[in-house]
Design goal:
It is a single chain. By secondary structure, the protein is of the alpha+beta class. The protein folds into two domains: 148 residues, GAF domain (Beta-Lactamase); 108 residues, Winged helix-like DNA-binding domain superfamily/Winged helix DNA-binding domain (Arc Repressor Mutant, subunit A), CATH 1.10.10. 55% of the residues lie in helices and 15% in strands. The chain contains ten helices and six strands. A six-stranded antiparallel β-sheet has the order 3-2-1-6-5-4, sandwiched between helices. The longest helix is centred in the middle third of the chain and has 52 residues. It is rod-shaped and about 90 Å long. The chain starts with a helix and ends with a helix.
Length: 267
């Protein structure tokens, strides 16, 4: 979420400056439960705020994260509503009136957007409305980005499952075919579906039958079904599974499948 969040914050700050008329809009991403880091700016700045880590509960941004709602101060340097740990930095930037709004995702602040004036004048309703609107816009963008990523991952998982199933079926056909040339061609095709020979060199080679059994185990098949698919006994199937686990230094068949995939021995 980090890159998407930062990109959304940068775009929102530009719109805040443009639409509200504040000379400086800035913001940062919440880094865990303790701090907010100020990294993004729209408008003139002397650089005093850049990279500042704001402790949660302190200053305006830290207070906004702590209370989980927008806040406004007409004079940052004098208001009793916040702590003044960062007064020196704010004074160097020449900032006085300031408003800040949290970006909230899953009920937790993930970023803060600020709008600031260089005079101790009241922050107008227009600025507050723009801040609130842009905070909501960032929230929606982050949620939408996450939904897209989850959908993409689901499609990738489905595609991976299809490849694994196809690989297993091809190995079964090769193992049970009475045509030697066809079996050799099927073996060549299945070899092309595994593409990490460098990693595979870290493990002893699996026999063809061990790969047959492991490819079906990767589909969640129990030993009885694997045996039926390959035309061998259940005890023989167990022997091949144990041999593959030993070669892959795996404690379980699931771990053997995962290790084999990472090594490029299975798709």
């Amino acid at each position: 979420m980090g890159d998407a969040l930062s990109g959304s914050v940068v775009a929102a700050l530009r719109r805040i400056k443009r639409d509200s008329g504040v000379p400086l809009a800035f913001g940062g991403v919440v880094l865990g439960p303790r701090a907010l880091r100020l990294d993004h700016f729209a408008g003139d700045t002397v650089g005093a705020l850049n990279g500042v880590s704001v402790d949660i509960g302190h200053g305006l941004g830290g207070k906004v994260v702590a209370v989980n709602r927008p806040m406004v101060v007409d004079d940052y340097l004098k208001t009793p509503r916040i702590t003044h740990r960062y007064n020196t930095i704010i004074a160097r930037e020449g900032l006085r009136a300031m408003a800040a709004a949290p970006v909230i995702v899953d009920r937790k602040p993930v970023a803060v957007l600020y709008g600031a004036l260089r005079a101790a004048d009241p922050i107008g309703g227009r600025t507050l409305d723009v801040l609130a609107m842009e905070a909501r816009a960032v929230e929606q963008e982050i949620v939408a980005a996450r939904i897209r990523m989850e959908a993409s991952a689901d499609r990738a998982d489905a595609a991976g499952d299809s490849v694994a199933a196809a690989y297993a079926r091809l190995r079964v056909l090769a193992a049970t075919s009475g045509d030697r040339r066809l079996a050799e061609e099927l073996d060549r095709i299945t070899d092309e579906l595994t593409s990490n020979p460098v990693s595979a060199q870290a493990f002893p080679s699996l026999t063809s039958r061990e790969q047959d059994v492991l490819s079906l185990a990767a589909l969640g098949y129990p030993n009885a079904r694997i045996a039926a698919e390959l035309g061998i006994t259940v005890e023989t199937t167990k022997g091949y599974v144990k041999a593959a686990m030993r070669k892959l230094d795996a404690a379980t068949r699931f771990e053997a499948v995962v290790t084999a995939r990472r090594a490029g021995l299975l798709p």
